[in-house]
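Re: weekly structure request thread

Next one in the queue (513 aa):
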Amino acid sequence: MKNEVIIINTDKVERPKSEMSYEAVRNTLYEKSECEKVTVVVQAYGRLDKTRLCTEHVLKFTQDVPFKLILLDNGSEEKEIMEYFKNVNYPNKTIMRLTKNITGVYATNKALQMANTKYVVIVNNDVLVTPKWLTNLLECADSDPKIGMVCPVSTNVSCGQEENLGGFDTIDEMIERAKKYNISNSTKWEERLRLIPTVALYRRSIFEIVGLYDAGFIHDWGDDDYSFRVRHAGYKLILCRDTFVHHNHNVRKLEDKDPVEAIKLANSGRKIFQQRHHGIDSWNDTNDTISSILAKFNINRSNGNSISALGIDCKCGAMILDIKNFYRRNGIADVHTTALVNDIKYYHELQYVSEQVIWGTPDEMKEDPAYDFIAIGKPLNQYENPIQIIRKAYKITEENGYILFSLINSADYRQFLYCLGNSDFREKEMPKVLYSEEVTDCISQMGGEIQEVFRVYHQVGDEMKKDIENTIQCIAQGNKDKINSLMSNLLVMRYWFIVKKTSSVKKNVKKGE
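Done, posted below.
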């Protein structure tokens, strides 16, 4: 009879005490004090040249942090991958091999189960890490026990995580630029709704609570699913804009993929995600970011070191996180947020983003308390009484506070063509007709100041632009300036307004003048 004995060394694990908090017990059991507090997993499937370059970069640019190394061959058909892994000169390494590639998720889960350090990092073989990469990610993760997942910015990635360092032609040039870029700076850490893990550092204890990746997602949307599950367990997802790696893979051109199969998998994964998360669409319901708008906004620090912000109809809360990240970048970390929501689909998600969630409509907003910053997620002319909404929001804004809202252009090229008898581009549910001039007049009547108006344009092909231009030439009678002005206005998709509520003192001075 064969007796197989499995011994698990628990000598360094402290037995929890009854007076410990839940978090303290969990940290005691799963965050042991060891020489190495991080395991780096290099995952490869073929592509020997990329695998070699990836591994060499990990060894060369991670010398400032002791780490365990797992070299994972996910069923490569080439024998050279395993031969190379065997010859990698690193004393604290483990080699794993799956005899057949099931999926990347399946292989990743097997590696995660092996790790016994406080943190685990997954590096795919098409990524080149850079100086200080791991030091910076650990600096972020160690700053808050509620941080469960950390990613750097990189080339060739979506989800607003892309950075190209201004462009580079060679790997050596990229490394030199990364050296200057990779300076740890907590004001560049952004809390996110979801992360794309070109490289990802995980707090290992989350696998005990959240579980592993769902292997039911063959490829796409599995990362989104895991991001949501991590947040639902009470952890934060952080994008480190102070740390860069190079994703040496052209995802936009579907490198090494069958385009037909890739689209099929994407559509399938998207449906599965919606089924699992109560109708939430990970693309449409998480990408309503205002970070690019806020980046153009000059902050008023007169409110001190604490900010109270309200997000109205902000879907899953990307806008609310954008506000927090914006103020953090400007040296204000104490941002208390409230979310007002009237769609049950988003109520649950907002619980993990905002300190307070209120069920109701903008018409039902109470006048107390007032807020330093209000962001309205839904375009103003999608409300039944848009002017009433903006008046109510203005009333509950603190003096010297700000309101950010948008207006869909109800006089864009689609409406223009429709008036000329072409209904091909007109949407079934067009927004209410509300012109930017009406909004401007309303703000002026209330005594507010429009700080900025930003335009977001339709993505229209050159052929369509030419057709519109030819049409309006008749109206403009060949006046080039008028043609350009009309074209610009017709191609605006949305206007974003930043309005400041002026102080009563300032108003009195103006009256006296």
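Residues 62 and 134 are 7 Å apart (CA to CA). The mean pLDDT is 86.
Next request, please.
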